[in-house]
Write a structure and sequence with these properties.
Layout: H1 47-65, H2 67-74, E1 97-101, E2 104-108, H3 114-119, E3 122-128, E4 132-139, E5 143-149, E6 151-157, E7 165-168, E8 176-178, E9 181-183, E10 185-188, E11 191-195, E12 198-202, E13 207-211, E14 218-224, E15 239-241, H4 270-277, H5 281-287, E16 297-299, E17 339-341, E18 350-352, E19 356-361, E20 376-382, E21 387-393, E22 398-412, E23 418-425, E24 429-432, E25 437-453, E26 460-462, H6 475-482, H7 486-494, E27 501-502
Antiparallel strand pairs: 1-2, 2-3, 3-14, 4-13, 4-15, 4-16, 5-12, 5-14, 6-11, 6-13, 7-10, 8-9, 12-17, 18-19, 19-20, 20-25, 21-25, 21-26, 21-27, 22-23, 22-24, 22-25
């Protein structure tokens, strides 16, 4: 019997309403798979074999529980799906769509643009006011978030992982029972504190939310890797909200579905949901977000978001009544580090006095990037007048977001054609395709940017300076290749001793 399934990128792009298919003798569709009925001679119906099957059944249940994550990790050897790139000229991009919500703004860059499509990414910027909550949702692709300004809380929910953050109170009011144990308080999965300079990973399909618990705006840029081979749909980013009725940020402007925001529970039957949650129908209407017009960033009432968080300097009280016993697996998958700060000067991987510094984040620093998310990042601070020496990405596209200042970018494609030669300013995004040459010259106020790369270990080759390709060539080879004297070849090879950043003419140690 042949089994035909739809598992490649693009195969679901035209389906918004799926109908069950009639069974065929030769083909079984993914939406029409039936479990065979047990027969009297089936080993699963045999009492003698039931005992022997129990360990196998338990093992299968465990595998099914985490099959999504395990399968994603096993895909690390599969090549990234190449996109058709027809780029002769590059342009710096700005948000093309702006959605105002109750407690913030969502700004979307046009993912239909050829440059974003070539890189297989979508870019969104969130501006969240104090006490603002970005509603819980999940995506059909992994994403890397960079926190540009402010501080807040990031919750990432992974189904099957235990609620390891727990609070208990001795009061008898509101006492509930769970698993035969009486408790009062709250319990949830780990919530991470985030601040300026943090890079956070959100795996594909993982629920997540962001809350601003600071006194100033929280600004976050998210790069969504729709070209990741863990995404078996198409290159259209799809966000599934778990609450409210937010506007669909990824629908094209003017489309009928643009303003019809709904959450994932809206499409389910109310009576069935009431049964599933064991609650009254009135509460289900709230769950479906009926008559909710607050948008995707909502304001938390006075007092803020009350979450269980460990306090710095507070002695931990031993808990001898855990609600759930761990099986050891959550100590690996469920406890993986999902964030790291690359804005801290002490974490610099490259530093040039009067020039600037660069910090990198790869799968060697954050293991979840390896095989699961397959993205990396690079954070650069260029002091005024400094130059990021000519280089190119060996194995990835770079999605560069300008954080502060301005700089001249020169990007060169194959055959020496200039694809971009212009100024990039704060808030803009520029895509640098794989192997395209790049040189950046900071303006008189300096320049800061973060680059998200479409490989878990983004690597570069420099074209000038110490450790560059020219430094790897013999002097005679350089002289012959460029038809110059050996003395000139030595100047070309050795005059620039810096590795990546050349100091500017303005001698200052500040990018401001």
């Amino acid at each position: 019997m042949q089994i035909e399934t739809c598992l490649k990128p693009g195969c679901f792009s035209k389906y918004t309403h799926l109908e069950p298919q009639q069974p065929s003798s030769s083909i079984i569709y993914i939406s029409d798979i039936y479990a065979p009925k047990p027969t009297s001679d089936s080993p699963f119906m045999s009492g003698s074999s039931m005992g022997r099957s129990s360990p196998i059944c338990l093992s299968l249940c465990f595998i099914v529980l985490f099959h999504g994550w395990i399968c994603i990790a096993q895909q690390q050897q599969e090549p990234r799906q190449p996109n058709k790139c027809e780029i002769s000229r590059l342009t710096a991009q700005e948000p093309t769509k702006r959605i105002q919500s109750e407690a913030g703004v969502t700004e979307i860059f046009d993912h239909h643009n050829q440059q974003f499509h070539c890189a297989g990414v979508a870019v969104v910027r969130y501006v969240i006011t104090p006490r603002g909550l970005l509603l819980p949702s999940y995506l059909n692709a992994p994403q890397l978030m960079y926190f540009i300004q402010g501080r807040g809380l990031l919750g990432i929910m992974i189904s099957g992982c235990p609620e390891t953050f727990q609070s208990f109170q001795e009061s008898q009011q509101g006492v509930q029972e769970q698993g035969g144990q009486r408790f009062r308080g709250d319990q949830h999965q780990k919530i991470r504190e985030v601040e300026e300079g943090d890079v956070s990973v959100v795996p594909i399909g993982a629920g997540h939310f962001i809350y601003n618990n600071g006194n100033s705006r929280l600004i976050v840029v998210s790069v969504i890797d729709v070209g990741n081979d863990a995404n078996h749909l198409d290159f259209q980013p799809r966000r599934f909200y778990l609450s409210g009725s937010p506007q669909n940020e990824f629908q094209q402007q003017g489309s009928p579905e643009e303003s019809s925001g709904k959450n994932v529970f809206t499409g389910f039957d109310a009576e069935r949901l009431s049964e599933a949650f064991k609650v009254e129908a009135q509460l289900i209407r709230k769950l479906k977000g009926e008559n909710d017009r607050r948008g995707n960033i909502v304001r938390v009432e006075v007092g803020g978001l009350q979450a269980v968080l460990p306090q710095r300097g507070q002695h931990e009280q031993p808990q001898d009544r855990p609600l759930a016993d761990g099986n050891g697996f959550e100590e690996t998958l469920c406890s993986l580090r999902l964030k790291q700060n690359i804005g801290d000067p002490t974490r610099a991987d490259v530093y040039t006095p009067f020039g600037g510094r660069i910090s990198a984040l790869t799968a060697f620093d954050l293991p979840i990037l390896k095989g699961i998310v397959k993205l990396s990042a690079r954070r650069a601070f260029l002091y005024k007048g400094a130059m990021l020496l000519p280089h190119y990405d060996m194995n990835a596209h770079s999605i560069i977001y300008a954080i502060r200042g301005r700089a001249n970018f020169q990007i060169v494609q194959n055959q020496g054609r200039t694809a971009f030669n212009d100024v990039v300013t704060a808030g803009q995004v520029i895509i640098v395709p794989q192997n395209f040459g790049l040189m950046v010259k900071a303006g008189d106020t300096g320049f800061e940017f973060v680059a998200i790369k479409t490989d878990e270990n983004g690597m570069i080759n420099t074209l000038a300076g110490n450790l560059s390709l020219l430094w790897a060539l013999p002097v005679k080879a350089i002289a012959t290749a460029y038809q110059i004297s050996e003395e000139e070849a030595k100047e070309l090879k050795f005059n620039r001793i810096e590795v990546s950043i050349a100091p500017g003419r303005f001698r200052t140690e500040s990018a401001n």
